[in-house]
Every structure is written in C-alpha cells, then in structure tokens.
Amino acid sequence: MILLALALAQTGPAIPPPPASNPRADEVTITARKLRQVEFGITLDRKGRVKDCRITKGVGDPAFDGFWCDAAHACSDEGHVSTDAMKACLKTREEEFLAALNAKYPGGRTPPATGK
C-alpha cells in the first residue's frame, strides 16, 4: 500500500492574486484557498486504485472537506493510477469544482456553509 499525502493535490501553479477591481475574483480566490486547506491521505491497492481516503484536516464544510476524497476516488475509477495521472486529474477536478461554484453563485454571492 502506498500513502499519498495532501501534496498530491496541492501541486500546480499558484493562484494569482485577483484584480483589485473585481470583488468576485476575491471570493473565487478565497474559495480556492479554502479548498486547498483540506488535508487528506489516500491508500492505494496493488493496482494503484484508491482503496481508502481520509480527511486529516478539514475546514468544517462537508462540500470542501469531502471534495478531495470524492475526486481521488473518481480519478482512480477512471484509471488515473500513476502519481502524475492522479495529480493531473485532481487538478482538473479542482478547476471544474471552482468553475461550477463560480457559475452557481455569480455576481459575488457567497455559497452558504453547509455545516457539519
């Protein structure tokens, strides 16, 4: 079994600071940072598929806390079993998640916290 840490999901380009004139960009950046504060570990089976995933540090919002494990399982189910393939898949899932939030809450509206 191999244990992959949060670093797997947190590699990639840094989020650039938003333009000062766009409050919505500030929210998207804060949302992305919140998503990246979640820490998790995954255990892989011999074939490289996700066997277990656990949150080791959450942010208190199930939508954010569960995102990485859900994404890791989905990437694994799609056959992304190498470390590089998993990183690329997780990065794509993160971008899609943030784009979906941006589309769902346009014009600076803040998504409600879902609580614990």
Description:
The structure is a single chain. By secondary structure, the chain is α+β, with helices and mostly antiparallel strands. It has one domain. It has five helices and three strands; from the N terminus they run E-H-H-E-E-H-H-H. The protein has a three-stranded antiparallel beta sheet with strand order 1-2-3, covered by helices on one side. Helix 2 packs across helix 5. The longest helix is centred in the C-terminal third of the chain and has 22 residues, at 83-104. The model is unreliable at 5-14 (pLDDT under 50).
List keywords for this structure.
116 residues; alpha+beta; three-stranded antiparallel β-sheet; 3 strands; 48% helix
What would you say about this model in short?
The chain is built from five helices and three strands, in the order βααββααα.
